[in-house]
Amino acid sequence: MKNLNYFTESEKYLKENFTFKMLDDIAKAMTDNESADYLQQQRKFLFKHIHEGSKKRA
Fold first, then answer.
1. What is the DSSP letter of 11?
2. 31 in helix, strand or coil?
3. What is the C-alpha separation between 40 and 33, in angstroms, rounded?
4. Quick check: 51 and 58 in contact, CB under 8 A?
5. Is the pTM of this model over 0.90?
6. CA atoms within 13 A on the CB side of 53
7. pLDDT tens across 40-50, in order?
8. How many helices (H) and strands (E) does the chain have?
């Protein structure tokens, strides 16, 4: 994230109400392994939800 801060006006490319400080805080809240575990959990949830939705429509 530090590298993006060096570009002038780089915050204009962030979504509304987001700052680099907020993104840094999120990045520091979890270790890499915790983040990877969370990603896997969310991915499983997403695909389970998609699969269940497609069963209902079939």
1. G
2. coil
3. 11
4. no
5. no
6. 6
7. 999 999 999 89
8. 3, 0
